[in-house]
Amino acid sequence: MRSTRFPSALAVLPAVLLLACLPATAQDAAQVERQHVGNRVVENIPEIPAELLARLNRYQNTRGAGLAGWTADGCLLIGTRFAETTQAHRVCEPLGMREQLTFEPERIGLGDIAPAGSGLDGFVYSRDLGGDEFWQLFWYDLGTRESSLLTDGERSRNQGALFSPDGSRLAYSSTARNGTDTDVWVMDFATREARPVVTEGGNWSAEDFSPDGSRMLVTRYVSINESYPGEVDLASGALRMFPVEGGKAGFGGFRYAPDGEGVFYVSDEPVDGQAQEFRTLRHHVPGSAPRIVSGHIPWDVRGFEISDDGRHLAYVTNEDGIARLHLLRLPGLEPVPLPELPVGVFGGASFSPDGSRLALSLNTATSPSDVYVVDIQAGSLERWTRSEVGGLPVDGFVEPALVRYPTFDRVDGAARTIPVFYYRPQSPAPPGGYPVVVSIHGGPEGQALPTFNPSFQFLANELGIAVLVPNVRGSSGYGKSYLLLDNATLREDSVKDIGALLDWIGRQPELDSERIGVMGGSYGGYMVLASLMHYSDRIRAGIDVVGISHFGTFLKNTEDYRRDLRRAEYGDERDPEIAAYFDRISPLTNAGRIATPLFVAQGRNDPRVPYTEAEQIVEAVRGTGQPVWFLMFDDEGHGFAKKSNSDYFGAAAMLFWQRFLLGEGDDHGE
């Protein structure tokens, strides 16, 4: 172990002048020792008690299985973790052995599997270094059990691998051309020679090859509310953009119909001149008006799949956070009966090569992700994986209730309500009520879903803490109007939704309004800091993970390929009015208003929210005399992918709640 003096990250004042202006207690706090333990950087975090580690052990040894798809021999390719990181495994029968295929030191992302009948036997996967998200693509050959690098191996970001129907070509998105724009590339898979086919600038992705492989559907993504679909002729390179009804709309999946003439897609474009709140599945044949396939369901379609034999289409709707599976027979789009499925959230779906079965991964609030298979003709459901839950009794897990609370503004004369998932401890409430942790999702266009979270289960079952997980305005899943309510200069309205949640907590006899903590990651980390800035008198402590502390410095320092995407959501920092607004609302500028203990955790290689966002808020808040814990991993990025790192952070977070929310042990942890 070695220690160094905390380096200056705050660029507001020179270090000497800053220290001279601070009171004695703040100057003492600025002399915090920084400790390096392997890849871990810690400040102020006490040693984790053995008793806490023992209580956490089983919760930290749960795991799930994510579906990638079917291999040509009828096995399922899944991603799961048995050691430090998620790797590729193969399962060849229901509840069969999981055969580990890859053994990379870093977490991998599973990509496309070679089409059946292509003569290829393997799959594509991606891997970065230490969470930097400069993903490189690799081919794993199931015959030789060898991996080979497909992309340049440099500081480029490659993703979205997609095989042509005959397996002769591989499409993917890459920043290799200039490091800023994400182009669409196509590789001749036999020679491994690749060329860009869309270089229009911006963020492009390959969506689907036509059945004959001559054309490709592509999309340019601007923001969650704005995408532009098109088609590339691969022989000539000609790009044809499709008209967007209403001029601007959000799009989801985009696939050729089995005949290669029409397309299926997900969109919120107007219908008959009427604006649409939700994204619906649509079928468009040239020369006719689009057919709205899911118009009878007033919720978003999250995705869809078409079987290789062209006989079936499956799509999933997101209905108040719960996934619903729908199966249609093509070409007539007649509904096909399905067996009863567990209530939860689907993580992916894939038809078997012969189209007779549909595999899907399912996650519930009380069980990690596992893979199930629907036999379409028999109408039966079979479980293929059973993931571990650390030996914990499954019936002891808490299932959240979905409730709604009123916020500050009104809709159609009534108070707007905000949905929140409420994890209530099973033990009786203490005399003052349950302490509360509010967990705020990132995005900001994300959506909190009732999925399995071992940390929430530990808080509820072991510490007796209620967990509230809100979907404040700006969250996806509740319509376009709701999604737009926090854009640009409306940013702090979502923070007011947290204030309204604090009011609601105060009206619940079983909740303790004197003991409330907040936590969140990425944009949720900003929400934590902003909530502490506005409501320090009502919140005891906060945990900020890879969070934004100043929108101006964030946009300046985020990776080049992300900057325009984030400007579309937050505003353009080059505009003096927007820059001044950022200064007014950013936690860094208002660090003096954060009067509660703070824990900041960060990955050193984060390309999205640079580590400097964490360093500067730690120094600023500590400079006011507040207790601040700081944790950074040198081999992580936007979150913690390695089990040992995740476990340490989880243990430190629970210790932080014990100290500052529950009042157990040393009150300061300095």
From TrEMBL:
Residues 1-26 form the signal peptide. Its EC number is 3.4.-.-. InterPro entries: 6-blade_b-propeller_TolB-like, AB_hydrolase_fold, Peptidase_S9_cat, Peptidase_S9A, WD40. Residues 452-659 form the Peptidase S9 prolyl oligopeptidase catalytic domain. GO terms for molecular function: hydrolase activity. It comes from the Bacteria. Keywords: Hydrolase, Protease, Serine protease, Signal. The keyword Isomerase does not apply. The keyword Nucleotide-binding does not apply. It is an enzyme of class 3 (hydrolase). PANTHER family: DIPEPTIDYL PEPTIDASE FAMILY MEMBER 6, SERINE PEPTIDASE S9 FAMILY MEMBER. This is S9 family peptidase.
